[in-house]
């Protein structure tokens, strides 16, 4: 639930027009007590050996919107990672404070133009094929598989971005983005096309850059996703092919969500990545299974339990369990 704050100071200065402007504060706090076996297979969100408390992508979000008339609007989004377990932000480790997203935007019936820091169109599309939405937990499908080792210029985001999101026409939405070259950071080009109509969701996306590590070759990633809501169950899939530093990689996932009664949701996936260690010449396949259950206490509060198992060919298996609580506002 969002709490909307009236811009009282602006209203005093700008008169009646400011009454159409709002600033919203929202976010999610999601933390889990975790236990891992300390396996050597690397996976997103894996906990250390023994017990630990992990934050699973908590966020603090400020957003605003001003009605410009004629169906047009101006606005902004500022979103920061939080660590509920220790009170830190990503900025405390040297990252940007508004690390999730920081954009100013202009929109209307013609679509939306945004400028700033954001996920690429491919990343924004593919995370919706993960029942955990890349939440930072070990059970998620995660960017490791769904990006197939590809990184954009700010790892899984781009800075200095000019993006455009089209209006939905016949269920189709086109998203384009250009991460501008600035300083040592090279350019990033991305696009996605999604079809969302009733129970069916399909998408195709592509991105290309020299990546976070400034590889000498131009890297690229292409992803196909889909889902169909049968009511009792909603299967999802993703398939990603990438080329990183001249080497091709592939990752895919099959997942599903299923409501259990009025308050429960079951989540599961099986995923594969054809090489978990890009530093070695031989391909080392990763197989990963995630299982989760979410129990809703209210519209804003959930309890959850996650299990994860991952095994690379020459590594020991990584197994984790997570029990936690999520509260949104």
Summarize this structure as a short list of keywords or feature phrases:
single chain; 329 residues; mainly beta; Porin; 16-stranded antiparallel β-barrel; 3 helices; globular; disordered N terminus
SSE diagram, text form:
Layout (H helix, E strand, L loop, with lengths): L2 E4 L1 H7 L6 E16 L13 E6 L2 E12 L2 E12 L4 E2 L11 E8 L2 E8 L2 H6 L15 H5 L11 E8 L6 E8 L8 E10 L2 E10 L9 E10 L5 E11 L2 E14 L3 E10 L12 E11 L4 E12 L5 E11 L1
Antiparallel strand pairs: 1-2, 2-3, 2-4, 2-19, 4-5, 5-6, 5-7, 7-8, 8-9, 9-10, 10-11, 11-12, 12-13, 13-14, 14-15, 15-16, 16-17, 17-18, 18-19
Q: What is the chain-wise order of helices and strands?
A: EHEEEEEEEHHEEEEEEEEEEE
Shape: globular
CATH arch. level architecture? Beta Barrel
CATH homologous superfamily identity: Porin
**Overall pLDDT metric:** 92
Q: Which oligomeric state applies?
A: single chain
| Total separate domains | 1
CATH topology: Porin
**Strand portion, in percent?**
over 45%
Low-confidence stretches: 1-19
């Amino acid at each position: 639930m969002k709490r909307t704050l009236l811009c009282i100071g602006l209203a005093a200065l700008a008169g009646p027009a400011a009454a159409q402007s709002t600033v919203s504060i929202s976010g999610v706090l999601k933390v889990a007590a975790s236990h891992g076996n300390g396996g050597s297979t690397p996976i997103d969100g894996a906990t250390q050996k023994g017990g630990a408390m992990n934050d699973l992508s908590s966020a603090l979000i400020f957003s605003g919107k001003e009605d410009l008339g004629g169906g047009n609007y101006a606005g902004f989004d500022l979103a920061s990672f939080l660590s509920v377990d220790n009170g830190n932000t990503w900025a405390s480790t040297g990252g940007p404070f508004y690390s999730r997203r920081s954009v100013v935007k202009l929109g209307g019936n013609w679509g939306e133009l945004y400028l700033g820091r954001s996920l690429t169109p491919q990343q924004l599309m593919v995370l919706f094929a993960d029942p955990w939405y890349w939440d930072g937990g070990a059970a998620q499908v995660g960017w490791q598989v769904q990006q197939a080792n590809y990184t954009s210029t700010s790892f899984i985001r781009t800075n200095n971005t000019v993006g455009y999101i089209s209006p939905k026409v016949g269920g189709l939405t086109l998203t384009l983005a250009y991460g501008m070259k600035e300083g040592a950071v090279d350019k990033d080009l991305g696009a996605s096309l999604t079809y969302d109509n009733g129970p069916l969701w399909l998408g195709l996306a592509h991105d290309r850059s020299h990546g976070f590590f400034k590889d000498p070759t131009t890297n690229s990633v292409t992803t196909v996703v889909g889902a169909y809501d049968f009511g009792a169950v909603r299967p999802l899939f993703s398939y990603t092919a990438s080329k990183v530093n001249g080497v091709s990689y592939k990752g895919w996932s099959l997942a599903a969500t299923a409501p259990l009664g009025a308050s429960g949701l079951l989540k599961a996936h099986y995923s594969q990545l054809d090489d978990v260690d890009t530093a070695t010449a031989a391909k080392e396949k990763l197989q990963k299974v995630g299982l989760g259950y979410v129990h809703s206490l209210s519209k804003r509060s959930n309890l959850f339990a996650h299990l994860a198992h991952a095994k690379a060919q020459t590594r020991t298996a990584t197994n984790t369990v997570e029990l936690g609580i999520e509260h949104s506002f």
